[in-house]
Amino acid sequence: MQVAILHNRVTPDALASDRDVLVQVEAVTAALERLGHRTVAVECDLNLLSLQQRLQALQPGVVFNLVESLDGSDSLMFLVPALLDRMHLPYTGSPTEAVWLTNHKVLAKERLCQAGLPTPVWRSGPPPAGSGVAPDCAAGAIRPGTRFVIKAVSEHASLGLDEHSLVTIADEADLQRQLIGFRKALQRPCFAEQFIAGREFNISLLAHADGCQILPPAEIDFSAFPADKPRLVGYRAKWEEDSFEYLNTPRRFDFPPSDAALLKQIGEIAAACWDLFAVRGYIRVDFRVDQDRRPWILEVNANPCLSPDAGFAAALERAGVRFDQAVARILDAALAS
What we know:
By secondary structure, this protein is of the alpha+beta class. The protein is built from 11 helices and 13 strands. It has 3 domains: 2-91, Rossmann fold (3-Layer(aba) Sandwich); 121-194; 198-217 and 253-336, D-amino Acid Aminotransferase, Chain A, domain 1. The chain has helices at 16-34, 48-58, 79-86, 96-103, 105-114, 172-186, 235-239, 244-247, 260-276, 311-319, 323-336, and strands spanning 2-8, 38-44, 62-65, 122-123, 146-152, 166-169, 190-194, 199-208, 211-214, 218-220, 251-252, 282-289, 295-302. Strands 8, 9, 10, 11, 12 and 13 form a 6-stranded antiparallel β-sheet that branches. A 4-stranded antiparallel β-sheet has the order 4-7-5-6, sandwiched between helices. A hairpin with a 2-residue loop joins strand 8 (199-208) and strand 9. Helix 1 crosses helix 11.
């Protein structure tokens, strides 16, 4: 079968986080060809009419969707699966609605909150005037001294996230001033999420005949961080290979028996996210766990990175699932939808 491997166009001056999609294309191409498929790489940008015409000419049996952004904005990535839906072309990964909802972190948190799944308190705008009650599924006004992490609403790869993103808030007005400042600096919509001091976990899930397979949980090891350094996985930790953060945030898969109940709980919560967002193929769910061992969902990542050195591939290896097997299961899920 011919598989079109679709990815966003990468400019010569692109950031490392954007260039990584080409690494994914190479890895997926090799896996598909070992599986006996014919492949063709197709890059795309905001010219969706051109993309439609090229795909119509190719007539692939299925599209392997690796598009992570369009025109430098992750907020537009849902346009590609929307086009593929319109063309009635099967494609890998999550469907349009799931991509849109999970990539818009505020909408995703609203959905999680409505479903009763734990996610930290957040703010994306001012509270209702005179109510004393915060919006965004919060139980009341912010306590002075609360710490928040300010993030871009619709960007992956921790774009703009570093120790300066962690702020201590005096009151609601102070938080709104901080949000305005970060929006101007990042040139993107931002939101503030209460910082959960504690441990950080990633749970990867892969399509399975019975729904999804929960892969072994990974924890980010911050033990090398000085006491005064915020324990955050920011942009440097993911992409700047000579930085302290990159070199000192390894993932680990070995845990003491005392963590068994916690790991089972976060795996079950991750599986609930699979069902809630009606995802497909493969996802990753990121958690923080507080000092009372309560897990909190940070993000649900539809179509996470498939680079050989990324967390999803590491979880596959730990589970004893070969990368080629995972690619075949992702492809099968697309063809069965």
